[in-house]
Known about the structure:
Blueprint: E1 7-19, E2 22-31, H1 40-43, H2 45-57, E3 64-72, E4 83-92, H3 98-106, E5 111-119, H4 122-148, E6 152-164, E7 174-177, E8 190-193, E9 199-212
Antiparallel strand pairs: 1-9, 2-4, 2-5, 3-4, 6-9, 7-8
Amino acid sequence: METKPDTIKVNTSQREEIQATYADLMVTVKGSSLIGGDAALKKAKEVSQLVDELTRFGLPAEAIHLQSVYAEASNGALLRSSSAIYRLRIRCEKLEQFADLLGIITGQKNATFERVEWKYPDEAAQERALEKALSKAEVKASKIAAALGVKLLGVYNLSENAFDQEQAPRPAMMFAAQPQARGMGAAPQVDLGMDIQHSKIVEVRIEIEYRVSGFAV
Length: 217
């Protein structure tokens, strides 16, 4: 039976904050007619109105993708005149335009902003975190070995785990109607707010067993 060599175990972790590089805005549009395929972007009245506004602003047409069409049938029959729900994904690669694009979307009567999906360069961040965690582990192991009067001989075992600690998204849109002032006859005011997150934390945790020269008996 193989005997396990003398080892010391070290645990370290490293966190990296990464910024979003672009965002996908998920939008639904209520249409008064049923048109399938990419033709809906031009021929479905309510969808084409939104597309025209976005491209007029400067968003490339290829940044607007039709993901699905849900037909609302009347009396069990699907007709060209049937209403439909169009689901769009609108890519915003210039994040400084995000607020303007959101304003255009929410300004459309039949369009509803559902959520935003932020996109991050995860792999590069995890690689940086791993390199830093390994360096920290080696320094830590060297200090422990020196304190114990032994020498590091090499790595016996290593395990790595990566964790995405991005906070769970909060509701994209929050409405709060203010109570009507007594005797004023004023319409209730609506407070529209949005919580936007542009960054997240990626953490790498490693556990390393180092082989060391024999402990003094």
